Structures are given as C-alpha cells and as structure tokens.
C-alpha cells in the first residue's frame, strides 16, 4: 500500500500516446518528501507521517519549528503536511519519499486548494437561474429571490445558498490516471486537471475508489 506524496502544480501540457492520441496532463513537481515526524497509535492515537518539501532559509524559521526539523535530522522546508500511514507500512523520521513511488497507469486522488474567485453571486456560485431579462424587471436579473419564510419559523435557515466567498477551499479530484513518471526530473504527469493554481501545493494519494 502506497502512502502518498506532496508536490507543486506547475501547469498543464499534453503528451502523445503510441497511437498518436493527444492526452492533456497536469505536471506536478514532486521533490523528495522528507519525513519530519512519525505518529503512532500509542502516543497519538493514529498512524501518520509528517513531511516537508523544498528548502527554507534558517532566518525564516522560528526556534520551535527549527528544533522540530533538527530533531528529525532534516533541512527546514516550505511547510509541513501530514499523510495517513496504512497498516503494515513502516517509515522512519529523516527518510525520503520520492516520485518513483507511483507507476504509469495507476489511479490517484489529488487534493489541493481551489482558485479563489472572490465575492460571487448566486448565479455564478450556485448555478441559480436568472430572472426574466424582459420588460418589467429592473435591476433584479441576477438577484437570488426570496430567502425567508412565513411567521413560523420566520428566519433564514442555516446553510442557505446565498452570495459569498467562492473558491479558495480544499478540493479533491478522484480517480485520475498517472500517465508518466519522470524520476530524473521529479515530475508526475497526471491525466486531466487538478485543483489549484500553478505553484500551489497538492497532495497525491492512491485512489480510494480504485482500491475498493
């Protein structure tokens, strides 16, 4: 059972199959994931590993975090992420996880932070229908309409679909196929689009549905 990797989305391109078909792929740069901590059932109540990627100058790391990296014997990175550790898997602090963990043709789930869209109305945010764009409708073409109720209960229910902040949330795209693994350049080419903007951190894990 594979664990997963943290990488950065670098953009999209396409590759050609032997039959000449064009396949759109997302390029994910997966630098070696350095294990900074291993959590177990006895001390933490669950099994997982904490990893970091990239490098960060020592002047930008505060003393508690610097001590955390030093305890694991790894160089300070750009952040800390946690990955669940399956039963039977054993990983030591200070070790590295690399892109060759995955193989071409494998199905994966990719988690990232979606692009922020700012404040959006109900038509864009929740796919509401527009009101009539004809005579007699003034300044209400994209208005949501009535949101309240009668005297009982006389309030707006929680979770009502309304205007608000759109995007910039954790999103997982499931069952994506790994098209190519470039171990020399630490690149993972995944068929289709993955959440987030170029440069954003993404988590690549073995597909849950493909295994069940």
Q: Which strand-content bin applies to the residues?
A: 35-45%
Distance between the termini: 13 Å
Work out the helix count: 4
Question: Which strands sit side by side, in order, in the main sheet?
Answer: 1-2-11-10-7-12
The arrangement of helices and strands along the chain is EEEHEHEEEEHEEEEH
Low-confidence stretches: none
Evaluate the radius of gyration: 23 Å
Output the structural class: mainly beta
How would you sum up the major sheet?
Answer: 6 strands, antiparallel, barrel
- The residue-averaged pLDDT reads 92
Let me know the number of strands. 12
* Portion of residues within helices: 10-25%
Q: Can you tell me the overall shape?
A: extended
Give a quick set of tags describing it.
mainly beta; six-stranded antiparallel barrel; 11% helix; four-stranded antiparallel sheet; extended; 212 residues
Structure description:
The protein has helices at 41-44, 63-72, 122-126, 208-211; strands at residues 5-16, 22-29, 33-39, 48-52, 81-84, 96-97, 107-113, 118-120, 164-166, 170-182, 187-191, 201-206. The chain has a six-stranded antiparallel barrel with strand order 1-2-11-10-7-12. A four-stranded antiparallel sheet has the order 5-4-3-6. A two-stranded antiparallel sheet has the order 8-9. It is mainly β. The model has no long low-confidence stretch (mean pLDDT 92). The longest helix has 10 residues, at 63-72. The radius of gyration is 23 Å and the shape is extended. The relative contact order is 0.26. It has four helices and twelve strands.
């Amino acid at each position: 059972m594979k664990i997963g990797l943290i990488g950065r989305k670098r953009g999209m391109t396409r590759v050609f199959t032997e039959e000449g078909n064009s396949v759109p792929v997302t390029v994910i740069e997966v630098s070696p994931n350095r294990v900074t901590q291993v959590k177990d059932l006895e001390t933490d109540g669950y099994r997982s590993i904490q990893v970091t990627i990239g490098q960060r100058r020592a002047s930008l790391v505060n003393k508690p975090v610097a001590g955390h990296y030093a305890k694991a014997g790894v160089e300070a990175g750009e952040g800390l992420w946690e990955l669940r550790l399956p039963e039977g898997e054993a990983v030591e602090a200070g070790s590295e996880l690399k892109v060759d963990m995955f193989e071409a043709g494998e199905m994966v789930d990719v988690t990232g932070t979606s692009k922020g869209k700012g404040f959006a109305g109900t038509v864009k945010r929740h796919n509401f229908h527009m009101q009539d764009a004809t005579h007699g409708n003034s300044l209400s073409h994209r208005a949501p309409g009535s949101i309240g109720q009668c005297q009982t209960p006389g309030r707006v229910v929680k979770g009502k679909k309304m205007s608000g902040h759109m995007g910039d949330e954790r999103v997982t795209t499931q069952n994506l196929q790994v098209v190519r693994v470039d171990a020399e350049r630490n690149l993972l080419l995944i068929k289709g689009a993955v959440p987030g903007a170029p440069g954003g951190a993404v988590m690549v894990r073995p597909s849950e549905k493909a295994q069940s």
